[in-house]
Structures are given as structure tokens and as C-alpha cells.
Amino acid sequence: MSVVKNYLSLIKFSHTIFAMPFALIGFSLGIYKLATINLDLSQDIGIEDLLNRNPWVLLLLVVLCMVFARSAAMAFNRYLDRQFDAKNPRTAIREIPAGILKADSVLLFTIFCGVAFVATTWFINPLCFYLSPVALVVVLGYSYTKRFTALCHLVLGVGLSLAPIGAYLAVTGVFDWLPLLFSFTVICWVSGFDIIYALQDEEFDKNNQLHSIPAALGKVRALIVSRSLHMLSAGFVIGAGLLGDFTFIYWIGVAVFVGMLVYQHSIVKPTDLRRVNIAFMTANGIASVVFAVFVIADIFFG
Questions:
Q1: What is the pLDDT of residues 10-58, one digit of tens each?
Q2: Using CA atoms, how far apart are residues 38 and 48, in angstroms rounded to an integer?
Q3: pLDDT tens digit sequence for 102-152
Q4: Euclidean distance between the first and the last CA atom of the chain, given in angstroms as a whole number
Q5: Per residue in 91-111, is it b (16+ CB within 10 Å) or e — as a string?
Q6: Partner residues linked to 272 by β-bridges
Q7: 272 phi, psi to nearest 5 deg
Q8: Which residues pair with 269 in a beta bridge?
């Protein structure tokens, strides 16, 4: 149990709270889409096999994909950044620099999770299986981006944005605009709050030739970029609400989501970073979970 606890700490399992709710939104949209398709029409468009699948088994597979992909990405990030983490007082307590876990063991864990992710997609549908290496390249590739571009925050956002569209593909096997709008929401939302989190390492990044928006623009302008991204994120959830013709239940979720975006910018100032962790974890955790609850409630009961 001690080893399990160390690996859960390594991959920050609690941060699953960010992307998992959006994956459940994508999954729910897919289930609703299939449920509303005419059974006679389904034979013409070749999805009769999808209609006959057990949704609970499919949900389990989607959750496993999320866990494996995210675990591989986080473990690889910790493995690749271990030397930088050892130099940074804020991150020196992490498992590898602190000697709690060996670097080689973390690399093996990364490989296992990556293989498990691809293997799990095999049991979902051919499209997800064929796209799984692309998804892995995106989520693992993020770990390199801070070495050469300040746009690393956007790459992280793209990685997490695969959750809603990936879950929708797992159910339906096709792309659609509504889950894509939720993916765009995640890109801007995650990129924005990752910039806020990176404010803590502005000086360290500059001194160690690492790239980030705060290191490139300074705290004041970085917060302006973050605020702009969060405004775009709010725009996408509003656009999704209009496109999906949701009821008032959805809009309550939107109000909470946007409210949490406003709240985190109200408590983080360029000269006061004491509440960055509250903005990062608490505000965004509430935003994702509450928003997902209302969206899913609207999908099935609205």
C-alpha cells in the first residue's frame, strides 16, 4: 500500500478531477446520441454493433483509458523533469528527487501505462485503437515542450482536451461538433489555469532556460493571457449550450463554471501568489465537477 500511495502521489491522481468530468460529459453525449438514433436507420449507417454494447462495460473502458493515459503522461513528466525538480525548492520533495521512487522504476511504470492504454482502446473500437498512438504522442510530448516553447501550456490543454472527444468517439465511433466544443473549452480552460500555476516558477524557469508564459511575459501580462484564455473557454461553453439546445439545468452549470473562472482571477495577483493552489486545485476542481453534474443531468433529464 505504501508503494501504491507513492505512485498515486507521483502522478497526482487527485488532479484527475480536471479531465475526468469532461470525459464523462463526452461519454454521456455519445450514449444520448445512440439512444436517439432510429433503429432502422442504424442498420443503414453501420452502427448496430455500437447500439448492442453494454454501456457500463464501455464506461469502465473509457475510465481505464483516462487513468492509463494520464498516469503515463504524469509519470513521464516526472521522469523527464527529475533534474530540474531536484534544483527547484518547490519540487525537490517530489518522489524521484527525494529518493522515494527510482527513476528507472518510474520509466517502467510509464511504459506499462502507455501499453495498457493502447491495449484498452483495442476493446473499445477500431478508430480509438488507431488513434491511440497519436493521443500518446500528444500527452507524452507535452513534457518536452517547456524546453523550447512558452506555448507548453496550450499543449497541456490539448492533451487534456482529448478527454471529451475521445470518450464520445469510444461510444459513437464518429466525430461531432458538440463534443469538439467541449474539447475547445478544456484547451482554453486548462491552458489558462496552468499559466496561473506556472507563476510560482517564473524566476526558476528564467534561470534554467525553461520556457513558460510567465517567464516570457512576466506575471502581469501572463495573467492577462490567462484571463483571455478563460474568456474564450467561457465562450465555448456558451457556444456548446446554444448548439446543444440545452435547458436551464445546463446554464446553471455554466454559471458555476464561469463563476469559478472569475473567482480564481480575483484571488491571484502578480504581487500575491499565496492562493495559487486554491485557484489551481479548489476553484478548478469545483468548476469541472459541478459543471459536469449539471451537463449530464441536462442530457438525460432536461
A1: 877 777 788 899 999 999 999 998 877 654 444 444 455 555 678 889 9
A2: 10
A3: 999 999 999 999 999 999 999 999 999 999 999 999 999 999 999 999 999
A4: 43
A5: beebbbbeeebeeebbeebbe
A6: 269
A7: -145, 100
A8: 272
Cα 11 versus chain centre, distance: 13
Q: Are 231 and 264 in contact (CB under 8 A)?
A: no
Judge residue 64's burial from the number of C-beta atoms within 10 Å of its C-beta, 0-12 exposed, 13-18 middle, 19 or more buried. middle
Rg (CA), the chain: 20
Give the phi and the psi of residue 269 in degrees, each rounded to 5: -120, 155
- The half-sphere exposure of 277 on its side-chain side, counting CA atoms within 13 A, is 2
Amino acid at position 52, single letter: N
> Rounded to an integer, what distance in angstroms lies between the CA atom of residue 284 and that of residue 24?
16
The answer to whether the beta carbons of residues 65 and 125 sit under 8 Å apart is no
Half-sphere exposure of 198 (CA within 13 A, CB side): 31
Q: Which residue has the higher pLDDT, 72 or 3?
A: 72
C-alpha cell at 207: 534561470
DSSP line for 100-136: SS-HHHHHHHHHHHHHHHHHHHHTT-HHHHHHHHHHH
| Residue 161: C-alpha distances to residues 25, 158, 188, 231, 284 (Å) | 12, 5, 9, 17, 15
- Tell me the whole-structure pTM to 2 decimals: 0.92
**How confident is the model over 250-271, as pLDDT tens digits?**
999 999 999 999 999 999 999 8
